[in-house]
Structure formats: C-alpha cells, structure tokens
Amino acid sequence: MNFRSLPKWLLHPTAVAVMAAVYYSTAELGRFLASTPENVTPVWPPDGFALAAMLLLGYRVWPGIWIGSFLTNIWAFLDKTNAASVAISIAIASSIAAGTTLSAILGSFLLHKFVGRGHLFERPQNVFKFVVIGGMGGPIVSATVGITTLCVRGMVPAEDWGMNWLTWWMSNVGGILIFTPLILTWSQPVLEAIQDVFALGTAGIRQKRKLKFKYLKSLSSKVKVAEFAILILLVLAVGKIAFGGSYPVEYMLIPFLVWAVFRFDIQGATLLIFIVSSIAVLGTVKGGGPFARPDLNQSLVLLQSFIGVVVLTTLMLYAAIAQRQQVEAQLRVQTQQVKKTLQDLQQAQAQLIQSEKMSGLGQLVAGVAHEINNPINFVGGNLFHANQYTQELLALIKLYQKFYPQPAPEIQKEIEAVELEFIMEDLPKLLSSMKIGTERIQKIVLSLRNFSRMDESELKAVDVHEGLDSTLLILQHRLKSNAENASIEVIKKYSSKFRKIECYASELNQVFMNILVNAIDALAAKRIKTNINDVETLPRIEISTKVLDKNCVAISIADNGSGMPEETINRIFDPFYTTKPVGKGTGLGLYISYNIIAEKHRGKLKCVSAPDRGTEFIIELPIRQDNS
Ligand SMILES: Nc1ncnc2c1ncn2[C@@H]1O[C@H](COP(=O)(O)OP(=O)(O)OP(=O)(O)O)[C@@H](O)[C@H]1O
Ligand SMILES: [Mg+2]
Description:
Layout: H1 8-33, H2 45-57, H3 62-77, H4 83-114, H5 124-137, H6 139-153, H7 161-186, H8 188-200, H9 205-212, H10 214-218, H11 222-243, H12 253-285, H13 296-403, H14 409-418, H15 420-452, E1 459-463, H16 464-474, H17 476-479, E2 489-493, E3 500-504, H18 505-530, E4 540-549, E5 552-559, H19 566-569, H20 589-600, E6 604-610, E7 614-622
Parallel strand pairs: 2-4
Antiparallel strand pairs: 1-3, 4-5, 5-7, 6-7
Helix pairs in contact: 1-2, 1-3, 2-4, 2-7, 3-4, 4-5, 4-6, 5-7, 5-13, 6-7, 7-12, 7-13, 8-9, 11-12, 12-13, 13-15, 15-16, 16-18, 18-20
Bound molecules: adenosine-5'-triphosphate (ATP) and magnesium ion.
C-alpha cells in the first residue's frame, strides 16, 4: 500500500476501513479454520488484531473494530423474518460490537497506563502486565457484554451464562496472547509508518521504510536462514507428533521456543509462538493431541492454559534477556564514562602536581636569585670604590714613605708587625679576585633568572642555548661527582645557525629540566647496576642542537645511561607511568613535557632508546609559532 499517494483526509477513513476488513476477515478465517464441531472457535484472532491496532494507532481506530465486529456478528445473528427481527439482529450485533470495541479500548488504556508506550516485551514485569491486563483483563468486557446480550435475547440460556462467558473470554484471551505480540513485533515498523502518515502527512515515511526490512536483514546470513528453516521444520514435526499422533510430547516444543528467543530475536519468538499455538489449536479442534477431551470446555481450558504458558514463558524469557542486554549496554556506557572521567581526573591531577612542582621550583629559583641579586650588586658596586680608595691609600702611604723615609721607631715597629710590604702587594690582588667572584655570582643569578623566567610566561623569542645552560646550572650539583657517582661529562654541540626561537621560555626550560633529570637518574641507575668505570661507559650527556629546515630546529639530549626496553618506551608519555621507586618519581615529567612540546608549541618529542645503550630525546620545535 502506498500511503503517500493518499490525501491526508482519507488516511483516517482508510485506516478504519482496513481495520474493519482485517477484523472481519480474520474472524471468518478463524471460524473457517479452527472451529470445533460445536461451532466454537477456541482462539479468536480478530481481538488480538484489534488490541494491537489500538496500541499502535491509538483509540481513533475504534470505528474499524466496531464495524468489523458488527459485520462478523450480523451475518451470524441476522433474522430476516420481519423488520422487527432484523432490527433486533442489528441491535444484538451492535451491542456485541460495542463490547468488543470497549474491550480493546480498555485493554489499550490499561496497558498505556501501567506499562507506558513502548518496551512492552523488553521487561519481565511488562510482559506480566501485558498478559494479565491486556490479555486477560480486556476481554472481560467483550465476554460480559456479548453473552449478556445473547442471554437477554434468549439465544443463550441464563443458566449457561457462566460456561458460555468462560468460553468466549478464553477464546479472546487466546487471540490476544497469540496475535497481539505477533503484530506488534512484526508489523511495528510498517504501522509506525502509517502512524507517521497520520501525524506528519507523508514526510516521515521515507526514513521509516528502512525499518521494514530490519528483521530480514538480521537473518541475512545463509546459515541463519537455514537454521530458522530447520527450527520451523522441527517444530512442525514435533507438533505433528504431539497434536496429530498419539504421543503427548507437547512439552518438547518448549526448547524450540527457547531456541527462537536466543537466536531470532523477538520477531522469531512471536512467530514461533504463533506456529506452536496454531498447531495446538488446529490439532485440538480436530480432536487430536493431549488437550482433546469429550468435554469441550475441558479441552478449551487445557488448550488455553498451554497457550498461556507458551506465551508467558517465551515472552518472559525474551524480556529477561532484553533487560540484561539493556543493563549490559548501560553498564558499558557507564564504564566508558567512568574511564573517561578517570582519565580526565588523572590529567587534571597530573597537570596540577607538575605545575605546582615546577612553579614552586621556578618561584624558589626566582626568589633566591632576587634575594642574592641585591646584596651582590651592592658588594659589586662598592668594590669599585673600595678599589679606588685602596689605590689612593696605597699611593698616600708611598708618598709618606718618600718624604719620611725614617719613621718614628714605634711606626717602624708596627710596619714590620703588619707586614706592610705584603699588604700593599696583596690588597689589589685580593680586591680583583673579589671582583671576579662577584661577577661570577652575578652571572649565576642571571642564569637562575633565565631558568625561572617567571616574568616571561608569554610567547617570546628566546635563546634556547641560554635556557639549556641555565638548566644545567641548576642541576650542577647533580652533575658533579659525589660519594656514589662519578661526575657526569656534559658535551655541548650547539648550532651556530640559530639562537632564538619563539616559545614559552619557562615551560621549555621545564622540559629541558625533566629530560636532563631523567638522564642523570638513568646514568646513576646504570652505574649502580654495572659498576663499571672504564672510559667507554663514563657517564656522559650530549646536548646538540641543529636547524632542520627554515622553520624547524631540533634539540637532542642523549645519555649513555641505563636505556629502556620496548615496553617502557611505549608508556613513557603516559601520566603517572614511572619505573622509579615510590617517592622518587611521580611519572609526570615526560607526560607534561610531551604536552608542552606537542600541544603548546606544536612540536614533536621523540625518544630513541635501547637497554644499556642509553637514551636520546629529540625535541623538534618550530622557530616561529604563527606560520608553522
Ligand atoms: N633517559 C632515560 N633513560 C632511561 N629511562 C628513562 C629515561 N627517561 C625516562 N625514562 C623512563 O621513563 C619513565 C617516565 O619518566 P618521567 O620523567 O615521565 O617520570 P619519572 O622520572 O619516573 O618521574 P617524575 O615525575 O619525577 O619525572 C621513568 O620512570 C623511566 O623509567
Ligand atoms: Mg622524570
């Protein structure tokens, strides 16, 4: 059916007409195929269709149900004797149709109220509500209205009201239990499309069309199709034995239902429920199988309870599995979220710790440099005058000696006691070495300030070699020999082709610091491990720089320390990865360095290493940040 070609105003009447036709034809088909010799239809399919249609399309299809039911009953009860009897027949059929319609409305209303829309078969409690409210509750109305109408008309004796009510009710329950799930699950995509036509006109159709073939697609592999065919064949074979032969093996059908649930989704399950129930009904009405009894109502009760168990068990099983899958999916999503949060937290923590650590160090260095700077400038500044005054005083003494070559004996004695000759010779030397000392302190202070560069947190062109040197200066104490380690030789091979690059100076110095500290640690580790002190393995750090292309420089820091195995190399840039003992390393140095180089400077940080051979870190940086 191409709904898109229908005008909007025709859609509702069409749905009503289709509903009426479906109701009428399924009723006739049901009667034709599965009526007992007493003309009782143990399962009444149209009510299953009616409830499904109402659940899917809403209450507005009620006229279709009423018309379908009316047509079904009018032929059955029409008495053409006279006009009055025709009118009475119409009244009976109308009343029964009203009962049927109300049943569907009530069932649908209660299901909407207690289950909500959707997820009818995806939770065990919903399946239970479907069976009890929709399956068993709704038909109470149609059975009561129908049998009471027939009683009032005298077509059913009042004393048989109960028995007839039960028969009517059970056949409706059967119809709903078998057909409603089948239709809801199999034609849901198609009916959704129809509903869209009601709601949106033709717009949503195209998109929904895909869904129609969803289930068939899930069967796409040939093996699965073959499996499905085998399943159906087995069901038919066992069904024939149970309901056509003389062996009461109907219980053997249950595993097939379980099979369908596990392998063929809800559509496979509802289809198998339909097939198994049909076999049971058809077999029983023909007088075969374990439920066929001389007493019709006994047969019906047995048959209905079988159908009830089949439906409930199968749908419950499906619901339990579906629920577990949902929970698993939710769990997966949550686990993913937790993982992500953990990662974010680790990153944040890592950055906090490292920036705390480095800014602490930076501040300390900057503070110390500042504190030393003032007095040393003071000393340096005064040394100039001290030197001048000394020169003048010495010249004055010489002048005295010239004009008074024979001083008083007491002065002569004092001159000898203080060794005036030596003082006059040594004092200038002493002052000049003091000058050299202060100049060195001033240089160190400058280096310290260079390292911390607290005032330069912005992008700026700075001398990379100066940064390397000042970092080495900070680490001087670790490079010198001590009780445990020989001194580390630092070989510098700085390129003369560049000096300044645009960078965040203090952060770049952090990177140098982290890599150099690691190299020193690795050298110490190697010495502790091998204890060899021959020239080949003398601890050495080589720092070289070169221009790679017109906007890229490389800075290499290589050590001949312990090196790293493959699995360590793969993880060195992970936050908190460390091979150092607890309390020694936080595992953040390289993680932070990587971020500073790769993210902040759009450069590269590479590592080449082999166990016992040493390690080389290569930093590649753009010379200018804007056009890199
Ligand atoms: N030059 C090197 N030689 C050998 N191993 C190294 C070298 N540099 C880094 N590593 C390895 O990489 C690991 C991670 O280094 P990273 O600097 O990130 O952390 P860490 O030095 O352990 O701790 P910290 O946070 O104090 O720097 C080290 O534990 C070490 O195993
Ligand atoms: Mg480190």
